[in-house]
Specification:
Blueprint: H1 9-15, H2 21-25, E1 54-61, E2 70-73, E3 81-84, H3 86-106, E4 110-117, E5 121-128, H4 138-160, E6 180-183, H5 189-209, E7 217-222, E8 227-233, E9 243-245, H6 254-269, E10 273-276, H7 281-292, E11 297-300, H8 314-322, E12 325-329, H9 336-339, H10 345-358
Parallel strand pairs: 9-10, 10-11, 11-12
Antiparallel strand pairs: 1-5, 1-6, 2-3, 4-5, 7-8, 8-12
Helix pairs in contact: 3-4, 6-7
């Protein structure tokens, strides 16, 4: 992580600009139409004022995911960190300078709260503290910064090829087109972002050293209360910043079930991890539709997975092997919970409590919800 003066803005933002989250976000969420759009997570949020006061988590990927910005080092997950390349150091400095330049040109205060360099991508948290004047918005700022980074990339490439005068570097952009932005809406969301950026090197280390998606993890501690689980599948999902509990009433009409499905599909398509035992008819319908699109889910099951050869079955196993599903059980083999032939209401409530503990974001009410869906 960066250790210069801009990092110290983390604590100042929490004390000053983040106390009133409604003013920082600029626009409250609105009801989504839940159109069946295949989201690429690069579109801007429909209806949001990108020139207003707001805090954003910005993410950009290096073209073709080339590892140009740094190198992962460390012998253990806790030691994992990124040693930036000269190009990586430049783009971080340019990100800080971009905020200073916009502030100087517009008179509107823009601050970098935190950032994280990764080998093939970059995350930065940007705070627009004052409304931007006409002609200025988030997209213009990010485009200018990306252009600056591409020019430095071309300069470094030209220097490398200077010994071969007949070879002319191709001036392709450093980053992939567009960028992803997440908008601060919820109390506690900013700290979740800080933790996520800080945890990126550790997560990359685990992915590099433990690639097997079907490796069973025992005594896997997760959630706000640190419960222990046996887990199979993509355990990295438990580190993602936005995990939303799926909980639907059992007695819903067909039309109401479809509304629930559309609601949670919109969340999943915008990047949230859905967490649930998926027990009620509506929850099962959500699971079915998300499975079809291979959207990311954490499923809590009421069966034991302790035995050496005991794994999730059927489509659950396929979802784990395909990398979009994490199966977790808080119960041991041969316990009263796993021995029951039929799930009880008490156990349903218990499993929903585990799902709530694993979730990091309380989904807004239906009328207020917009999930960050791009359009």
């Amino acid at each position: 992580m960066d250790t210069n003066d801009n990092t110290s803005l983390t604590s100042r933002a929490q004390n000053k600009g983040v106390a009133d989250l409604s003013s920082a976000s600029g626009v409250r969420p609105k009801k989504s139409c839940y159109a069946p759009i295949k989201h690429n997570r690069l579109r801007r949020k429909n209806g949001h004022d990108y020139a207003g006061v707001c805090i954003y988590l910005i993410s950009v990927n290096v073209a073709n995911r080339q590892r140009l910005l740094g190198t992962l080092v460390g012998n253990t997950p806790d030691e994992a960190h990124i040693e930036p390349s000269p190009l990586g150091e430049y783009i971080a400095a340019a990100f800080r300078n971009m905020a200073d330049i916009v502030t100087a040109k517009t008179g509107s205060c823009v601050q970098v709260l935190q950032y994280q360099i990764m080998p093939d991508h970059f995350h930065g948290i940007l705070y627009v503290r004052d409304p931007l004047p006409d002609g200025w918005n988030l997209a213009r700022m990010i485009a200018a910064w990306k252009g600056d980074c591409s020019r430095e990339y071309w300069r470094i490439s030209s220097s490398t090829l200077s010994s071969a005068p007949d070879v002319r570097p191709e001036k392709s952009p450093l980053f992939e087109p567009n960028f992803n932005d997440k908008i601060l809406f919820h109390e506690g969301q900013l700290q979740t972002w800080y933790d996520y950026l800080h945890d990126n090197p550790r997560r990359l280390w685990l992915k590099v050293h433990y690639p097997d998606r079907l490796r069973k993890v025992y005594d896997f501690k997760a959630g706000k209360q640190g419960h222990s689980y046996t887990a199979v599948g993509n355990t990295f999902y438990i580190t993602y910043p936005e995990r939303v509990q799926v909980r639907c009433h059992r007695n819903l009409s067909d039309a109401e079930i479809q509304n629930e499905v559309a609601y949670y599909l919109a969340l999943a398509r915008s990047g949230a991890i859905l967490v649930s035992p998926f027990i009620s008819p509506a929850e099962k319908a959500v699971y079915e539709e998300c499975y079809k699109e291979k959207l990311r889910m954490i499923r809590i099951v009421n069966r034991g997975l302790d035995g050496q050869f005991i794994y999730p079955t059927g489509r659950d196993l396929k979802g784990c092997s395909d990398g979009f599903l994490l199966i977790m059980t808080p119960y041991s083999d041969f316990s009263p919970e796993t021995a029951a032939t039929r799930i009880s209401r008490a156990q349903c409530l218990d499993m929903n409590a585990y799902a709530a503990d694993l979730s990091t974001v309380i989904a807004p009410t239906r009328d207020a919800h917009n999930t960050g869906t791009r359009a």
